[in-house]
Amino acid sequence: MLGLALRSLRARAGGFAASFLAMFLGATILMAFASMLDTAVAGEATGAARETLVIMATVVGVWGLMLVVLAVTSTLTLSVRQRAEEMALLKSVGATPAQIGRMVVGEASGLAVAAWALAVLPGYLAGTGLLELLHSTDQVPESVPYSFGPFALAMGLGITLVSAAGAAVITVRRTVRGRVAESLADAAVGRVRAGRVRVAAGIVFLLVALNLAVVTATVMRGKGMDAMATAGQADILASLGLALLAPWLIRTAAALLARPLGWFGVAGDLAVSTLRRRTGQMAGAVMPIILFTGAAVGTLYLQEIENDAMAAAGLASTVEQKNIATLNFVVIGMILVFTALMLVNTLIAATAYRRREFGQQRLAGATPGQVLGAVTLEGVLLTGIGVACGAFASLFTVLPFGVARAGTALPELEPLTFAAVVAIAVALTMASAVGSARRAVRVPAVEAVNV
User: Fold this and answer.
1) Which of 277, 268, 262, 212 is nearest to 238 (CA)?
2) Tens of pLDDT, residues 100-156
3) What percentage of the chain reaches a pLDDT higher than 70?
4) pTM of this prediction?
């Protein structure tokens, strides 16, 4: 099966592109921030400078692990589901679930090692830029030189490889369980059964986020900027929880909006049908929208509340305040860049895969315009779900931190910040989905169906 995995990687290079890109970007970011540990040790940084370097590495390392696992799981799940019929046929000729599992894990591990190797140079360059930023804001002395060594290489390879292998195990267990006939039927219609573990994990993330929100509003009230330590994590954990519950959210939205979408005629009917039949694939697309919106809105408003609180206290220009703001924006910038790329990557891969489906719809009588209209409606609905869930997740940070720092759960905030985040999410989602669909429907219907 390992040999088959390597041959599969060579034969299906395009099909693994989305997963490879997620691993490559994840490894680049992880190594860039992990190199701060190498810098702290090799450069003999002391005091506040050493603490800053360690925090940059460890905080981003933990969040990076979660985000890379989610990104790789999302794209790898999409890739494996695209091959559900192939795997069902392997089962029909005698392949055991364990053998298929080893093949998929072997494919994922090979991708992870290749992505890590190619990410070493970009990771080194990104780490150099990160240290220069810390130098320019006086958080680390100019005398501390940059070092890229064992911590960066080990964390980059280790986290990427573990994420890939773990995602492969999770994905393949869902795909190969069940009887051969059931697997073939599911593959034919794109049906995916919801996992209880996923739902349980989503609920746990939400409960932890709620706990952090309560701690921020009560225990951390009056503790100054220390409240950022608990508040800053709540929105990301809530976003992760809602992202894991995305299949249920999409099914609920499709049921509630079936009649309104029907007003759009054939395009609306096609959109409802897709959302109901391909909930798993649609969930993979809405995940990054939730993460992007929740992390962006929560962290940007957190920093705005902190800036207002410091200004009211006459401390807005302190070096410590500027350093904390820089650290927050660097970390959130990393998260947002990664989730934005993950959003585009996932949507392009998911939509491009549907070329055969689009061909079948056209052979059944739908026009290319109706197919594109259906994809547009799907994109609007997915964006709406993602933005609404992300905005809700941000409240786990904004409301309690407002209580802790401003004395009110409803502090005055700049609405343009939220509008800008929503505009970016809408632009990325619609451009990726509709652009990919437009390219897909250019292929003649008969040719697309026979792919």
Assistant:
1) 212
2) 777 888 888 888 899 999 999 999 999 998 888 888 877 788 888 899 989 999 988
3) 84
4) 0.78
Q: Where are the alpha helices (DSSP H) in 263-367?
A: 266-277, 279-312, 319-353, 355-363
Contacts of 179 (CB under 8 A, 6+ apart): none
What is the DSSP annotation of 176-205? H-S-HHHHHHHHHHT--PPPHHHHHHHHHH
Distances in Å between the alpha carbon of 306 and those of 48, 83, 301, 309?
21, 49, 8, 5
CA distance 202 to 209: 11
Judged by DSSP in three states, 149 sits in coil
Alpha carbons 181 and 225: distance in angstroms, whole number:
58
Chain centroid to CA 242: 12
Domain ranges of the chain: 1-193, 194-451
| Residue 351 structure tokens | 């939509």
- Name the nearest CA neighbour of 249 among 190, 208, 194, 167: 194
pLDDT tens, residue by residue, 200-247: 889 999 999 999 999 999 998 888 777 887 888 899 899 989 988 888
Q: Are 405 and 295 in contact (CB under 8 A)?
A: no
Angle 295-301-306 (CA atoms, 0-180°, nearest 5)?
125
